[in-house]
Amino acid sequence: MDLPIIRTLTMTSMRLFSPSGVVPQAAALRLAVRRLRALGFAAELDDSALARHQRFAGDDDVRLEAVHRVALLAPSIAMATRGGYGLSRLLGRIDWPLLARSVEQGTRWVGYSDFTALQMGLLAHTGATSWHGPSALDDFSRSEEAGGMDEITRDCFCEAMNGELEAVGFRTEAGFDGLAVRGVLWGGNLCVLTSLLGTPHWPRVKGGVLFLEDVNEHPYRVERMLLQLHEAGVLAQQKAVVLGAFTASKPTPLDRGYSMKTMLAHVRSLTATPILTGMPFGHVPTKVSFPMGARVQLLVDGRDALIGW
Question: Which of 65, 156, 214, 225 has CA atoms 20 to 30 A from the CA of 249?
Fold first, then answer.
């Protein structure tokens, strides 16, 4: 069942495109389109949104053309249908100035997970901002039996795209009371982000606020990637690191008490950079929307944290 319109927006143009993994079910994507339209967005599917080639939404040329086609159209919102994998294959061929011009014309590029690759490249090559936020399939096609659309995700996204959202808040661990820093907010999926280290698509952000999330990664794999960032000097160059959800990993009999908590304690012992947890984003139903590449202020009062821009 489609939800009724819950807020009135001037029919904001939105293009849904598939730069990464294949869309497994066309019906689910069409449900997402209907729901986004019910929210007041003039959502339209890109011509190749449902293309298929192996595990990808079309071969590399098809997906690259989709990215450039959306940039030329310069809709108000360019939202990825889903993540998966595929954007890393395109980074060396993307026309970054073209994407930056679309941002200048008002396009908000929105997504997460594999979309981190495009967002990192856009920031590295042009300094343009994008939006870390929901994707069409993950967040707007969930069946009612599976919980439907998450209200916080929905409302936060609508407020962000309507220009009403200026900050996001969350509860973090004790020990950071009084923290107050300013810097560029950047990051995304840890695995995708770490894969770009040392490439031309790596933003050279110093004094920033780095946000990270991941899925299906055991704590030791998360530790290994965080240690790579540490050894490369990335963590030390940041004012703070903010962790979102790290989901869907399974403990093994070999862990013997080793966990995300003990891993994080070890990484914290190696760096003076504050590492906060608890921000609602990642591969979870409830996720906030926020600008990637914007200057923000991070404030902590007790265990209440706020990121404003």
Answer: 156
